[in-house]
Design goal:
The chain is α/β, with parallel strands linked by helices. It contains 21 helices and eight strands. The chain folds into four domains: 77 residues, DnaA, N-terminal domain (GMP Synthetase, Chain A, domain 3, 2-Layer Sandwich), CATH 3.30.300.180; 160 residues, P-loop containing nucleotide triphosphate hydrolases (Rossmann fold, 3-Layer(aba) Sandwich), CATH 3.40.50.300; 71 residues, Helicase, Ruva Protein, domain 3; 90 residues, Chromosomal Replication Initiator Protein Dnaa, Chain: A, CATH 1.10.1750. The strands form two sheets. Strands 5-6-7-4-8 form a five-stranded parallel beta sheet, sandwiched between helices. Helix 16 crosses helix 21. The longest helix is centred in the first third of the chain and has 23 residues.
Length: 436
């Protein structure tokens, strides 16, 4: 063989053929050659102390066998970790001054796979060159798959490389509530300055703009101001822009100006990798069979995978119980039950309708009879009936109205929806949002 790296490649291939793929990917594939002293001691570089501990405790024998197969004679195997240099320490010092809690949501900690690779690459491109790559970047996919992680990763990376940038991250629901408060308090200009002076605007859950006409109007002008000034906009949604039914066409068009990237549920290998990575961050040793078990039972939501690992870590920290199949089965029992749709509460419906109509929830429950409040109240009663199946009498009790008022409201909504396409789309979007 020509070099030590050739020997190491052969040893890695041996390990890959004699262990689980997840083990190989997380503990062995990233090994780097350091030295081969006196032809009897191999030193390999691993990325952190936790991985070194796992390799020394569980895989030293495998590595010795691998090198014997490659070299034809026995060698000792040692592992070492990188030593920080001054530039690295300076970088870490800068990162410590970034907002607390952001480090977990970095590109480094994002597990890539076929289901999210394109969105990940697009997010990295935007972070490396704000407003020079894709503007806007529109990322969509079901809840719990990493959209928010990517938005925070962009924020973290831009803050690190451009400390002078004004970076604004906001959830659309918060954006909407801030508009309502600004109008009520006469502080609209301050609200506009907060968002229109951003160098990078990251807005999450944009689907909650659906049906909120005044909020859409405000965001439209905010979008135009930033885009015309060459500022970066990144948007996340649980669905493509074209499927947000009551979104104004002028906004839908603008969302599609740049690049659209989707994230889908991860495949089995990616789920295993996520479990392993979450365990590594907690310094918890999760056996391959346990990682496989979790990945086989929790298939749709990354947050559930993370929750399962955290629960196993709690068992280990509090009771000294190491992860095994039996413990894992108990740990994820509640999570498996939680995969069923969460019951939609009346309060959630009222809050969403109130935001759509730019009202307070108390307006809908109250006695006001203005046209806007009455329309919102009828919409609320109709959706409660559609989503929960509650009786007319029970709905009336929620609003201190008699049975006949509820019947009239629901019948009126049914007639209006049948002849008003925009109203139907607004209703459909509200129902989607409360079921999210």
């Amino acid at each position: 063989m020509e070099s030590f790296n050739d020997v190491l490649d052969a040893a890695k291939q041996y390990c890959r053929e004699h262990t689980a793929e997840a083990t190989y990917q997380y503990y062995i594939s990233g090994l780097e050659a350091v030295s081969f002293e006196n032809s009897n001691c191999v030193t390999l570089l691993v990325r952190n102390d936790f991985i070194r501990g796992i390799l020394e405790d569980r895989y030293t024998g495998l590595m010795k066998a691998a090198f014997k197969a490659a070299l034809g004679f026995d060698v000792e195997v040692k592992f070492t970790i990188p030593q920080p240099d001054p530039e690295e320490e300076a970088r870490e010092d800068r990162e410590e001054r970034l907002p607390v809690g952001q480090y977990a949501f970095t590109f480094e900690n994002f597990i890539r796979g076929p289901s999210n690779q394109f969105a990940f690459a697009a997010a990295q491109a935007v972070a490396a060159n704000p407003s020079g790559a894709y503007n806007p970047l529109f990322i969509y996919g079901p809840s719990g798959l990493g959209k928010t992680h990517l938005l925070h990763a962009i924020k973290f990376e831009v803050a690190k490389n451009h400390p002078d940038f004004n970076i604004v991250y906001v959830d659309c629901e918060v954006f909407t509530n801030e508009i309502i408060e600004a109008v009520k308090n006469g502080t609209t200009e301050l609200f506009r300055q907060k968002y229109r002076l951003a160098d990078v605007l990251l807005i999450d859950d944009i689907q909650f703009l659906a049906g909120k006409e005044s909020t859409q109007e405000e965001f439209f002008h905010t979008f135009n101001t930033l885009h015309n000034a060459g500022k970066q906009i990144v948007i996340a949604s649980d669905r493509p822009a074209k499927e947000i039914k009551s979104l104004e066409e002028r906004l839908r068009t603008r969302f599609e100006w740049g690049l659209t990237a989707d994230i889908q549920p991860p495949d089995f290998e990616t789920r295993v990798a996520i479990v392993k990575r979450k365990a590594e961050l907690l310094k918890l040793d999760v056996p391959d069979d346990v990682a496989d078990y979790i990945a086989n039972h929790l298939k749709q939501n990354i947050r559930q995978l993370e929750g399962a690992v955290k629960k196993l870590n709690a068992y280990y920290m509090l009771e000294g119980i190491s992860p095994c199949i039996g413990v894992t089965s108990t740990a994820i029992k509640d999570t498996l039950n939680d995969t069923q749709p969460i019951p939609v509460t009346i309060e959630k419906i009222i809050n969403e309708v109130a935001r759509t109509y730019n009202l307070l929830p108390s307006d809908i429950r109250g006695k006001k009879r203005s046209a806007n409040v009455s329309a919102a109240r009828q919409m609320t009663m109709y959706i409660i009936r559609e989503v929960t199946g509650m009786s007319m009498e029970a709905i009336g009790q929620e609003f201190n109205r008699d049975h006949s008022t509820v019947v009239y409201s629901i019948n009126t909504m049914e007639k209006n929806i049948a002849k008003d396409k925009h109203l139907k789309e607004m209703c459909d979007d509200i129902i989607k949002n409360v079921r999210t």
